[in-house]
Write the structure tokens for this entry.
Amino acid sequence: MVDDIQRDVRVAVIGAGLSGLAMGLRLLRKGLHDFVILERAAEVGGVWRDNTYPGVGVDTPSKLYSLSTDPNPHWSRLFATGDELFDYTRRVTARNNLLPHIRFEHRVDEARWNAGERLWAIATSRGVYRARFLISAAGVVADPSYPDVPGLADFPGECFHSARWNHERDLRGRRVAVIGTGSSSVQFVPLIQPQVAELHVVQRTAAWVRPKADKPVSERAQRRLRGTPGLMAAERGLFYLITEVLAGARRHRVLRNAFQKTCLKHLDAQVRDPELRRKLLPDFQYMCKRPLISNDYLPALCEPNVTLHTGGLVEVRGSTVLAGDGTKAEVDTLILNTGFDIGVTSPIAQRLHGRGGVSLADYWGDDPRGYKGITVPDFPNLFMLQGPNATSGVSSALMFSEAQAGYIADALQRFAEADVETVEVRPERAGAWTRWVRRMSTRTVYEVGGCRSYYLNRKGENVVMWPAWSAGYQLRTRRFDAGAYRLGHAGAARVPAEAAT
């Protein structure tokens, strides 16, 4: 129950993951200090706080998966581990004096636009806040998705999601079923395989797996980076160029074929059994779904205590799991690697209510959209990070978050200087942007690659991923374009209180 505590602030940010921290840093750098970051947990860190499964780590090179404002010379590996990333978020918070702005254990239950007072009323688990501007940095992969499978709720053994790993469950000698073969599974399956008596991996769709070019970073190399900031910047630039080449594969078949051949060679070298190799071979183009990177996942599936089931999980009968290929297994532990609530199903979209009390989820329906993935008509003074078509499955998602944070901070600084109280994107500009994104998306592998993924809505349209070069997005968000918006200044006529919603 929401109590009567009320806080009035100029800006409220939802979420203290890396995107929320990036937003806070940009506000401070613009000299804007009247803001709070509302965080539902007791720590910063977002996904790197919540995901603690064995082997958790980033699948983007660490040089890119860090904030440009806070480069880190201390990564121990080319691909950082989850605990390192969690520590990094805490260091960034402390070093930049963000803690005074963060309100921990403040879950946002609902936020409503009040047109009469030109502000957002934000109901949290610790009281009500009122903010002139609201910024959602709640994250794309913040809330686990649980499958709707007959009998799953009645499973008598231990069942948990990989994003909420149960460390009290000793897996030694257990008969374990892993449901799903996404980016988390490829990290923890090789580590739990030697411990368990039986491991049943239930795969709905095969994925392209390419080698992981991971290696340790020596202490000597870390010292050299620490003493030479220009070298860190050069390395970051190099990795950025590499990921831009990878990004080009989503629009160019020749590049996709080249990466696909690398994956095929990887599969042939690591899986000798022709039947198992057939089950692991995707029937769609590279990058149509998120590619996986691993050197030890495929070998783990070849071990004698591992069985690969295909066709996905279709039913649970007591302790028995049944797969779509007709096979079944008796298990005592279920680990769900079934993804996250994304897009229109995201809980935060259901909790944000704009003009007329309409939720963002209802406004979108099956068609999430927003100008530059940041603003939405009929939702005044609301900004988003990682909004529709404004994230990357190839380059670092943080590069998009930082671009968005810079765009928003630039806007808020201008508003403070010009006494702007309301901002709302013009519908015609938002519509033109959406049409351009749709045109660009029709030529991407997401829509022509022969698969169905969480990137697509029911109409088969990409509503999640940026469809072009990430550099293009950064150029389009390098400064706030006031001409695309309707701005309301302080002192202008307000909506009568009785008509406000």
Notes: Confidence is low (pLDDT under 50) at residues 496-501.
